[in-house]
């Protein structure tokens, strides 16, 4: 079995040797409002980002579906 290699140090390593190499950092945002639970997550911003990602995903999915339909049509000789 071949292992995956990376060509850039910023790439995410893969395979069993990569386990434990990735590190998570927590960053405080000093200008953000602190919620009563001590959280500084901006829910409006997060929901906006979620909606944007959802729209982009659906658009990409539609493009892929159209491309697949065109390929099926071409393979079938226009008999679909």
Describe the structure.
This protein has about 80 residues and is mainly α. It is about 40% helix and about 0% strand. It is built from 1 helix and no strands. The longest helix has about 35 residues, at about 45-75. It is flat, with a radius of gyration of 22 Å.
Write the layout of secondary structure elements.
Layout: H1 43-75
Q: Concise description?
A:
With 80 residues, this protein is mainly α.
Structural class: mainly alpha
Q: Tell the overall outline.
A: flat
The amount of helix comes to: 40-55%
Cα distance spanning the termini:
41 Å
**How can the largest sheet be summarized?**
none
What oligomeric assembly is this protein in?
single chain
Give the H and E element order: H
Which regions are unreliable across 5 or more consecutive residues at pLDDT < 50?
A: none
What proportion strand?
under 5%
Please give the number of β-strands.
0
Summed up, the helix count is 1
Instruction: Let me know the average pLDDT.
Output: 82
**How many whole angstroms does the radius of gyration measure?**
22 Å
Q: Which descriptors apply to this entry?
A:
80 residues, mainly alpha, flat, single chain
